Amino acid sequence: MNILRYLFLTFLIAGCFFYKQASAQVSPEILTLIENSQSSNALWSVQVRDSEGNLIENLNGEQLVRPASNFKLISSAAYLDYFGSEYTFETRLMGRGSQTGNTWNGDIIIEGSGDPTISGRFYSEDAFYVFEKWVDSLLKKGITAVEGNIVGFDGLFDDIPYPKGWEWDDLSYYYAPETSALSFNENVVDLEVIADGPVGSAPEIQWFPMSTDYVKFVNEQITTPQGTSFDEMYRRELGTNTILLRSTLPQGYYETESLSVTDPSLYFLDTFKKYLENRGISISGQLYTDSNYFSWNPESFTIFDSHKSVELHEIIKELNRESINFYSEMLLKKLAADKYNVQGSTELGLQELKEYMYSMNFDTTQVELRDASGMAPATLLKASDLNNYLVLIRDEEYFPVFFESLAEGGLNGTLKHRFKNSPLKGLFAGKTGFVSGVRTISGYLKTEQGNELAVSLFTNNYTAKTSSVDFTQQKILEFLYHRY
After folding, report:
1. Whole-prediction pTM
2. Same domain for 326 and 429?
3. 241 shares its domain with 290
4. Residues 384 and 60: beta-carbon distance below 8 Å
């Protein structure tokens, strides 16, 4: 009888706690801000918890929402949890053959590790930093000719370039590149457009790296009179590296755009070969990729150089502050490859992410995962779960690194240009999110009274201008700043 009574009381207390959590209501002032906004007919979810985890503002918390890039708050922490903040990628330059005089008789091989950072982002904008180091290692051995091929092992990841559900018209742009275990310059070419010719002429173009012929630009752009508006139109023909340029640019306009390539492993090898030749090392053979994960055995190869990336905490800071989809998806496949000792795939990585979410009290029966970056419209979760997660993660060992990776309002990252003329400047650290019809923001707010709140605002299915949604979300955050 005593046991039954104990269980009953425990259940009653737990039930009362749940009711208290679920019954919290949103403040009338927040409802008024939403009702007076240009997106009053959108789905709004507002979740706010205090530092003890008590739910103090609740609107549509049990709704399934599209988190957009707010999902990176989950995936980035899962990577820190699994790999540790000091983890580094190791990419090796190797040889299969032997050296005679100044000639390497055999193949030069690059073993792809899934490193997403072989670019200029962490090397003072020098995208050739790693290539330069590798060429120097060959020249120090006296090698100026290669009688063989350049081979890239990219079998650590599967050959499916995108997560399911990414929209096709995003795939030409830097924020939706293909994934590959062998990646250079974040798998994009960097285009510059200069409209300095007469009206009606095609603007001048140039591109990095080395105006490579790996891509073909069809320049159908038109220079228009000064004072007219810039109208952007770039499109890569899917499955090819032919990129159509059909923008209109006013005289004097300068435009930059990073555009994705297909078959990034071959792009890596093609660029590396050109770099070798520019440095005086001749290559007699061809470019090949080796994707056979189970037959890969480099034990007998000569190691010329082993490049280690920056540590994971630096990668995560860029991933979250600048909202880099490429990093998130690459790390997902790396996680799968490392955990299951197979070719890394999005599906296996998402399986592991869901396990992490379960450990952080997400209701995973109410979760739909298609990607690690939140760009897929079919990625869904409960608003209340994400907000509660922001409280729970504060007890994790890696939380200081995670928190450091968040953008600061009015100061840096995706929040650099928001909250500049607001009391929130420097007092909100978090993550923004945007896909078509979705605007989200989640993070930590220091209030006027010195309290810290975990805040999640989701606006789904809006048709108004995104700037108007940003305005309303800022007003909600400012209300919370003064209220608590």
Report:
1. 0.93
2. yes
3. no
4. no
Q: How many domains does the chain have?
A: 3
- In terms of domains, do 231 and 375 share one? no
Range of the domain at 298: 90-160+263-310
Are residues 460 and 43 in contact, defined by beta-carbon separation less than 8 angstroms?
yes
Q: Cβ contacts of residue 237 below 8 Å, gap of 6+?
A: 243, 244
State the average pLDDT over residues 455-469.
Answer: 97
Express each pLDDT in 74-91 by its tens digit.
999 999 999 999 999 999
Under a CB-based contact definition with an 8 Å cutoff, are residues 469 and 446 in contact?
A: no
- For residues 125 and 213, state if they share a domain: no
- The residue type at 146: V
Q: DSSP string covering 347-381, please?
A: HHHHHHHHHHHHHTT--GGG-B-S-SSS-STT-BE
Residue 347 lies inside a defined structural domain of this protein = yes
CA dihedral 115, 121, 127, 128 (to 10 degrees): -70
Q: Is the pLDDT of residue 447 over 60?
A: yes
Q: Is residue 47 included in any domain, yes or no?
A: yes
Check which CATH number belongs to the domain holding 275 and give it. Answer: 3.50.80.20
d(CA 277, CA 285) in angstroms, rounded, equals 12
DSSP string for residues in 217-255: EEE--EEE-TTSPPB--EEEPTTSSEEEE--EEETT-EE
Do residues 42 and 76 make contact, with C-beta atoms less than 8 angstroms apart? Answer: no
CA distance 309 to 484: 43
